[in-house]
Amino acid sequence: MLRSPRPRALDSAAAAPTEGVPAIRATGVRKSYPGVDAVRGIDLTVAQGETFGFLGPNGAGKTTTIAMLCTLVAPTAGRIEVAGHDTRTAPGLVRRNLGLVFQETTLDGDLTAAENLRFHADLYAMPRATLPARVEAMLELAGLTAWRDRLVRTFSGGMRRRLEIARGLLHGPRVLFLDEPTVGLDPQARTQLWDQLGEVREREGTTLFLTTHYLEEAERCDRVAIIDDGRIVAQGSPAELKSVLGADRIDLRTGDDREAAVTLLERFGIEAVAGPHGLRVHAENGAALVPRLCAGLGVPVYEVTVTRPSLDDVFLHHTGHRIRVDRNGDAG
Predict the structure, then answer these.
(1) Which of 75, 134, 186, 194 is most deeply buried (CB count within 10 A of its CB)?
(2) Do 124 and 139 fall into the same domain?
């Protein structure tokens, strides 16, 4: 989990990134603590305007990596650039070009929504002439215009998270980092948050970089990097990552599983694995194959389920274990 740093002096002006320069570029990045290698050599490139997901369980190195990308922690080795600026030599310019939404709320509950935004604007020395319009635009983006003068301590968890995203965007960053943005939110609040993030991309053109252990969230990203034990073990679009696994999984429960298994091999060239709940086979385009199987097996088919490869399957393929999420939303 990231911790908010003590405010630091920022450079007086932020240079816009050159056209075609990646929003984030990291090369050979490592972070070691006494007796622990938290990040073991990461290379990644994130394009401007992309939604990029960092997928992995707690302890994999996600939060440490974001802390380095955001200049909160210095890497032990390697080079990081955000919006074309080096995190070591130009940290002020990096901070001007990024926003950060922490896993735990950092809003002031005794201030109103608008006051929280104006306080953030003071930290970034935003021009007072344009500030009122920008505050209203961000409140509208968050769907909180009607609550602008309400104390934040009266807000629901979803409302607070939407306000935090609005606050992170207030100064017009090129990259918005979100550390486990939907942890603790109910399904409706998660949906509302993703609607807001979609509008952020549409209206602001902001690059979104989020850490998550929720597989359904990673599916929404343009590209995903899977991190485990401090290393990136795979990266690409969700479709590209799942294509490595190829075949769909088909689970069948029939009137005679033994005879069905023989027919599957002889007639369809598909080898079935018998289990306590029926047969399991793997085949390309399982949905299209099912009608042929049901018509050609020669035994009654009581139940059939087709499952496409998931990012959890991809994670298992590359790491040998699955992402497990407990009742509190923590992965391990």
Answers:
(1) 75
(2) yes
CA distances from 160 to 11, 61, 182, 184 (A): 29, 26, 11, 12
pLDDT in tens, the chain (332 residues): 555 444 443 443 344 555 679 999 999 999 999 999 999 999 999 999 999 999 888 788 988 998 999 999 999 999 999 999 999 999 999 999 999 998 888 999 999 999 999 999 999 999 999 999 999 999 999 999 999 999 999 999 999 999 999 999 999 999 999 988 888 888 888 888 888 998 888 888 899 999 887 778 888 999 999 999 999 999 999 988 887 777 888 999 999 999 999 999 999 999 998 988 899 888 888 888 999 998 999 999 999 999 888 788 888 878 877 775 443 444 44
Same domain, residue pair 262 and 206 = no
Lookup: tokens for 291: 């009608």
Q: How far apart are CA 137 and CA 298, in angstroms?
A: 64
- The range of the structural domain enclosing residue 262 comes to 247-308
